[in-house]
Amino acid sequence: MGFFSNLFGKQTCCLCGTECGPLKRDKIKDKQYICSDCTRKCSEYVKLSELDKNAVEDHIRFMEKREKIYQDLLQNSKCSALPSTVREKGIRFYDDYGFLVIAANKNTKNKVNHEVIRYDEVMSYEMYTEMNKPTEQGKPETFKEDGIILKLVAPNPNMGAADSNNKNQHPYPWNTRDIKLCFRKSEKDTNYADNAIQHFDWIFGVHDSSKGLFNFGMSKEEKRDLQAKTDMAKLMGGVMKAAIKGEDPEGNEKLMEQMEQAQKSADDASSSGLAVYSRKADEAENQVN
Q1: In the predicted model, is pLDDT for residue 93 greater than 80?
Q2: pLDDT of residue 2
Q3: Per residue in 200-248, pLDDT tens?
Q4: Judging by beta carbons within 10 Å of its beta carbon (0-12, 13-18, 19+), is residue 199 exposed, middle or buried?
Q5: 19, 11 in Cβ contact below 8 A?
Q6: Where would a tag sit more exposed on the chain, N or C end, judged by fewer CB atoms within 10 A?
Q7: Angstrom distance (rounded) from CA 283 to CA 211
Q8: Would you list the domain boundaries of the chain?
Q9: Regarding the domain delimited by 61-203, which CATH topology (the fold level of the hierarchy) does it fall under?
Q10: Whole-angstrom Cα distance, residue 46 to residue 42?
């Protein structure tokens, strides 16, 4: 009786105290439950079963902070929306802030808070395609769906580090399952998944070392490396001048500015440009918090 009463009987939500039946609750650690209304406040990609009550409360506060970034900064800002019309799932890229938002069809969205993710929290991205098995022998497979799969940087730096696109990334605070985003279910629709991959490639500087066919100047990667070396040379020159004059470097405002710029340029060069978006995301978080 105890087994069936726990399985099918009503349980009390450990967060809000609401009684919830078996179809309107999620089980978390320590044999506790949260109701569907509290679940709607969480990310659909976080493994709630691995969290205890305190961790779930922390996660909801985190989601509410991210929602505030969306409401205060992103919602009315320009973005690259892929697909432009969301049939299933999609991504909105907010390059001016270093954040992306996972978009959902209005008929499928059932969450209180948007999925708001920093660019530097993305560990990897790839396209996927699924095909329907033929119903009769000898007939070809038919298109089912395609889209992209995102993996986020794990909170434990030892988890998945070898698969990371960039070593200067920001851990997402919670363990997540793979984020599978279906962009289309008909080959007649535009293939926006390829456009999304190209945008991620641009963010992570995947092709920054290459040049156009008729481009005889430096590549973006070479320009970043040169800027880092130039700013470091300026800094070292400033340090030597301060030392000759017997000045305290920390009291030299110009020298401190040069030091900050040299650090930014070094970060940009070592991260293939991702550090630019990290700073934008930091500024957005500081502005809202």
Answers
A1: yes
A2: 46
A3: 999 999 988 887 666 678 888 989 999 999 989 988 888 888 888 887 7
A4: middle
A5: yes
A6: N
A7: 32
A8: 9-39, 61-203, 220-288
A9: PH-domain like (2.30.29)
A10: 8
